[in-house]
Amino acid sequence: MTILVTGATGNVGSQIVEHLVKRGADVRALVRDPSKAVFPAGVNVVQGDFLDIDSLRNAMSGVSTLFLLNAVVPDEFTQALVALNVARSAGIERIVYLSVIHPDVYVNVPHFAGKFSVERMIERMGMHATILRPAYFIQNDLMIKDVITGYGVYSMPVGTKGLAMIDVRDIAEIAALELLRRERAAQPLPLNRINLVGSDTLTGTDIAAIWSEVLARPIGYGGDDTEGFEQNLKQFMPAWMAYDMRLMGERFLTDGMLPEAGDVERLTALLGRPLRRYRDFATETAAAA
Fold first, then answer.
1. pLDDT tens, residue by residue, 196-211
2. How far apart are CA 289 and CA 284, in angstroms?
């Protein structure tokens, strides 16, 4: 019984691998360049790419459970469909797919729309899967750490509706627990969806106030300018991705990312502990600066 983790060298995937190994699972990690992969002892590293069908077939041979994570790239949708079709052909009936919260609402945002279509494939084809729907990753704010500390401005376009931000470490642990639940079940389990949210739903002003307290100096919120947000992102990512992020930011402003009733309680029970809070992240980040 082997669990294959894709995206294994990323922030989420690498932590999932560690959680699984600690819990005694047989883990296989799919990576593009094995020479750069650093994993705990016992992890079987295989080289592959989502668009290299033969490498995918090799990686999925003998696998019982799949964790599917696709990066935000122009052909993300194609990569996901290819991976799921190869998994289906390989007889893999235990899947955990990392989607995104509210993909049925953020319908004009390319990477949200792509993930929602992947969800539709999983459901329509009767695949046995857990679909994880995370809200905004708290650690995304590391991108603007220098802006916060250097210029006194929290510049993410969070708006006034609020985002139920979640810590990446919580996402990884929940994903590992779901993989093990499916792996260890006597029979493939039915489809389910889990919203991954944080314990607090925060507005841009709320987050600026947290940083003000942590840094002991005024931090203002200045993130509603999504055009400026796009232009700043274009300095270190492709223009298409910066535009995708701008569209997401615009939906933050109009819709927010709000949890459903019972989400926080469900995740707390699953983890057996409280969810990590944004304030914890801000405190840790400030201490490490």
1. 999 999 999 999 999 9
2. 9
- End-to-end CA, the chain: 43
- What's the rounded Cα separation, in Å, for the pair 52 and 16? 24
Residues found in the chain: 289
Whether 176 contacts 97, CB under 8 Å: no
Looking at residue 235, its amino acid is: Q
User: Phi/psi of residue 44, each to 5°?
Assistant: -85, 110
Strand partners, 27: 3
Query: pTM for the full model?
Result: 0.96
Spatial contact of 68 and 132, defined as CB atoms under 8 Å apart: no
For 59, the enclosing helix (H) or strand (E) is helix 53-60
pLDDT tens per residue across span 212-237: 999 999 999 998 999 999 999 999 99
| Strand bridging mode 129-134 / 94-98 | parallel
Structure tokens at 22: 């600690």
For residue 169, give the H/E element and its range: helix 168-184
